[in-house]
Amino acid sequence: MHFRVVQRILGLLLMLYSITMMPPVAVSVHFADGQTGAFFYSFAITFAVGLLAWLPARNDRRELRLRDGFVVAAIFWLGLGSFGSLPLLLTHFPEMSLTDAVFETVSGLTTTGSTTLTGLDLLPKSILYYRAQLHWLGGMGIIVLAVAILPMLGVGGMQLYRAETPGPMKDSKLTPRITETAKALWLIYVGLTAVCGFAYWYAGMDAFDAVCHSFSTLATGGFSTHDASIGYFNSPLIELIVVCFMFLGGVNFTLHFVAWRGRGLLGYWSDPEFRAYALILCSFTLVGTICLVFTQQYALIADSARYAAFHFVSFMTSTGFVASNFDQWAGALPLSLVLAGFIGGCAGSTGGGIKVVRWLLLFNQGRREVQRLVHPAAEIPIRLGRSVVPPRVIEAVWGFCVVYILLFAVLLLLLVSTGLDQVTAFSALASSINNVGPGLGLIVSDFTQINAAAKWICVLAMLFGRLEVFTLLVLFSPSFWRS
């Protein structure tokens, strides 16, 4: 383990992150909301700690090894939850405990969107902007992590998306170097955010709301500047824009890269994961619309289709925006929304959940086992599109899903033991580990009604879910720390 290399990189990353405290300072000055000091002091503390970590190790230029990469990814995300909470702890409005501040920050950075704040319409503009910025930065960090880092660490089947090797991308490479890949992804991410923000502004949002909601939408986060979320605007046009950009946020960003390089939109449809993603969302929307029509939840069929599409896209992409009282829907529809979060977006997207590609591989393997019952001696490969999936990837996917289920079971028992009822505990954990945001029971709108111990368990679940489980879990293995 190259501890000094890890220390140098973490110090640099922390200093870089401290700079992100300055835009909220500008917002605070512009709106004169009295929060300038909280953000400036947070910047100074974060930068100083990063500098102190970097200076002793600044001359160590050795390259990161595999284990170093795991440590950097895990510690950096854990550290961001601490240093990112400083502005919320230093401000006097709203007054937040350490638990609530860390919960809010981790929820923002992991693009979960669960909140411990109420009265959002009355909060200082700089605080509202900072929450949205946490989403936006976390979303980009997730993309780089998923596309450029996790494949090289071999986490849970993400080897399919190595930058240097062909995969389900129809042999389309990104770029040969992580830095160039990250730069290309940044350009796409910024471009889509700008288009989304302009669309919101054109549809009727003011400039501040448009910027904040564009940050949350592309990151599939869900933090809003209003307690009623997107329902505050009561605009079918705004909801349509939200659905479109939530859908794009849940798509593998390597497909956006291919389209951006001028290869056309056919690259999307030629990807088997994208086709499955679109088909699942269309199926959910159709079934949801039919159920809402038959239960007469809304007077018009158009409204049933509108709200079914919005909420199923919101939950499956793990965004978590809401436009109506989905928890009041009849039958199994509210639970269906929660379960849709387990599917999640595509690999390499800002979406949470288990990811569509893993479900697709599991489905293909299940189909192969049925065929083997008929033809026991047949050699039937598992394919994803035209590519034959290596057995190692299938093993990694199975391992990921088994650990995911076991981890869910353990955390669920811990949540119930804190005193939560079973519906709230299941929903809170599903919301956290899938990085969705809203849920059922006591957490329909926020997490203010659950206890501190439950919040810390949810924080851990958010990090496990966002870092693909193994990135954190491997640190608990004794063999990992042996030389």
Quick tags:
mainly alpha, two-stranded antiparallel sheet, 1% strand, 483 residues
Give a summary of the structure in a few sentences.
It contains 21 helices and 2 strands. The chain has 483 residues and is mainly alpha-helical. A two-stranded antiparallel ribbon has the order 1-2.
Explain what this protein looks like in three dimensions.
It is a single chain. Helices cover 64% and strands 1% of the residues. By secondary structure, it is an all-alpha fold. It has a domain at 1-67. The chain has a two-stranded antiparallel sheet with strand order 1-2. Helix 14 runs parallel beside helix 15 (333-343). It starts with a helix and ends with a helix. Mean pLDDT is 88; it is low at 152-175.
Order of helices and strands: HHHHHHHHHHHHHHHHEEHHHHH
What is the terminal separation in angstroms? 7 Å
Kindly provide the radius of gyration, computed on alpha-carbon positions and rounded to a whole number of angstroms: 22 Å
Going across the biggest sheet, name each strand in turn: 1-2
Low-confidence stretches: 152-175
Q: Count the helices. How many?
A: 21
What characteristic shape results from the CA principal axes? Answer: globular
SS-derived structural category: mainly alpha
- Estimate what percentage of residues fall within beta strands: under 5%
